[in-house]
């Protein structure tokens, strides 16, 4: 579904990604693991077309999207959930859900089907219960659920999630796991940044370890669980 080849990225003179190659297959949940500053956020931003100083190839659903801007990638089915979740605090849950652009009647019809409000509420009943609540009154887990649902409303088939569990309690982290499984069951593919390697191994299929802008290892769940202690030490957690 997604194939990245030789991706490099810079901030001015400083190189943040070095020749990154990886792939994500349809229906998978794949994580990016690495210390602060390893390049994880930069990688997701490059995939979405949000980072101007990048070279290399990004292919999505067989198409080279490397030269496309973020809105065109979004139309193809890429969705980015930033680490601040991008929820509008003063708007209600429903108003937040109604914000994503709705494809015009003369749309090219080449993109995936955006989720209707009903589909969002069926998949995440908690959002229906909270639909009149302002963003400020939501828990961290509910905000994350809303952020994911908003991107699904754009018709995303591959979600690029920047550390959805960051700063959340263990109980809420488990809830996020449930949400990601729901998303996967709905046929959506996920590439996420995740520092909690134990959680990562329970929710995802494969893992890439990033260090100093490179993919240094690719691991399956058994390898992550067998090396959990070592990985936690490496990550400084
Ligand atoms: N706006 C920026 N200007 C200059 N350098 C930046 C900028 N954003 C990130 N960097 C640098 O690029 C490198 C990769 O940062 P990035 O945020 O992608 O890492 P990360 O793995 O996501 O870490 P974190 O979890 O701390 O966000 C780091 O060396 C960082 O200092």
Automatic annotation (TrEMBL):
Q: Name one GO molecular function term.
A: ATP binding
One Pfam family for this entry, by name? ABC_tran
* Keyword match Transport: yes
Task: Enumerate the CDD domains for this protein.
Answer: ABC_TM1139_LivF_branched
Q: Does the keyword Nucleotide-binding apply?
A: yes
Keyword annotations of the record: Amino-acid transport, ATP-binding, Nucleotide-binding, Transport
The protein, known as:
ABC transporter ATP-binding protein
Species annotation: Actinomadura fibrosa
